[in-house]
Amino acid sequence: MNETAADTLIQASWIAPVAPGDVLRDHTIVVRHGRILELLPAAEARARHPGVESVELPGQLLIPGLVNAHTHAAMSLFRGLADDLPLMTWLHEHIWPAEGRWISEAFIADGTALAAAEMLRGGTTCFNDMYFFPDVTARVCSKAGLRAVVGLIVIDFATAWAEHIDDYFDKGLKVHDAWRGDPLIHTAFAPHAPYSVSDAPLQRLRLLADELDIPVHIHLHETRDEIRQGLASHGQRPIARLDGLGLIGPRLVAVHMTQLEDDEIALIAERGARVVHCPESNLKLASGFCPVARLAEAGVELALGTDGAASNNDLDMIGEMRSAALLAKGVAASATALPAPEVLRMATLNGARALGLEAHIGSLEAGKSADIVAVDLNAINTQPVYDPVSQLVYSAGREQVSNVWVAGRRVLHDGRLTTLDESELRARAQAWRARIAAQ
């Protein structure tokens, strides 16, 4: 067998590999058995690999697959259900009651498939999920060809997924074992938040996360109310409490982080914890502003997430990049805060690192999985092109994503999903809307 034989050549006007960061012009990505074999100038690639299928994308930009580092995918079926409300009102009076009534395996399957279609259409090839029935999420994503880190949810109260703490751990560990070694599906512990998970389960999952070598994905310092509640209940701010439990470290994927003091930023940086910024959800729920420029200056690695479609209300990572870049500049009062290449890194390689997947995804490098997104910059709104990465972040829309490959499999082909039936997904979403709205 020829170990250098290629399967596919993907040629575009620009390639932004992220690591290394320089944009390549008129280059080709050579794909073999679902992985990137090499990146070459287009003419050299054709000469070295004659007769190989070639996908030519003039005027388009190739980027690594986007990594949505925080989602609740199945909540797509709650999109628009309870808008324009503060977080705790939204949760306690609307979302949690709706979940209690409607969450089931069928709801998770249909909601996750709807989310998967939206994410693939927008160039997201991997997402980090926190929701119930992670086994169902895993099955849907595996079939759709979408990479996922499914959360082994932990919360103090009973839900449709589990009846008590031991049940959460037992079921979560079974999910981890069932998908161990799968090329697309990974796991992380997902304690909901400091205000909804007590000390003993947090200590238990920390030990298990170390043993299994998986991340811990948690909402943290999301609102002022969370801080006040932590001080009232535990006599300390939530980060200090988690630090006392040994959770502030490289495995921690801390989401939102809008309420931070200088010493907390220093602690996060020192311990190597990762922060996931969700600008649009934070804005919509008026949760506060994550101080991304201060975190970055301190050396904290930042990833990017959309949150769920019930609080965003979309799963658009290209839009999220623009919001993150603009908001960072406004909060820092500096036009140089979070430049376009850095926000693209947040949405790709930094997300992969937060999830422990940087050896496989997050950049376009030889040896990594061929998770590749093509963005068509020929549109009027992205002309002329001086800097393709700036055009991506500040001018492009997700509708300009033309093709997507996950592990070399073309899951979006010239704007058409190849693994999911959009007509069927629309029909199922509308059926759920009729049922939920009737109550």
What does the model show?
This protein is of the alpha/beta class. It contains 15 helices and 16 strands. The strands form three sheets. Strands 3-2-1-4-13-14-15-16 form an eight-stranded mixed beta sheet. The chain has a four-stranded parallel beta sheet with strand order 5-6-7-8. The protein has a four-stranded parallel beta sheet with strand order 9-10-11-12. Helix 3 (105-121) packs across helix 15 (422-437). It is globular, with a radius of gyration of 21 Å.
Strand content: 15-25%
Distance between the termini: 61 Å
* Class by SSE composition: alpha/beta
Q: What fraction, in percent, of the residue positions are helical?
A: 25-40%
Instruction: Figure out the total of helices.
Output: 15
Largest sheet: 8 strands, mixed
Unreliably modeled segments: none
Number of strands: 16
> Can you list the strand order of the major beta sheet?
3-2-1-4-13-14-15-16
On the 0 to 100 scale, the average pLDDT is 96
Radius of gyration, CA atoms, in whole angstroms: 21 Å
What is this entry, summarized?
The protein is an alpha/beta fold.
How are the SSEs placed, and which strands pair?
Blueprint: E1 8-15, E2 24-32, E3 35-41, H1 42-48, E4 53-64, E5 66-71, H2 87-102, H3 105-121, E6 124-129, H4 134-144, E7 147-154, H5 165-179, E8 185-191, H6 199-212, E9 216-220, H7 224-234, H8 238-244, E10 252-256, H9 262-271, E11 274-277, H10 279-284, H11 292-298, E12 302-304, H12 317-332, H13 340-354, E13 372-376, H14 388-394, E14 401-406, E15 409-413, E16 416-417, H15 422-437
Helix pairs in contact: 3-4, 3-15, 12-13, 13-14
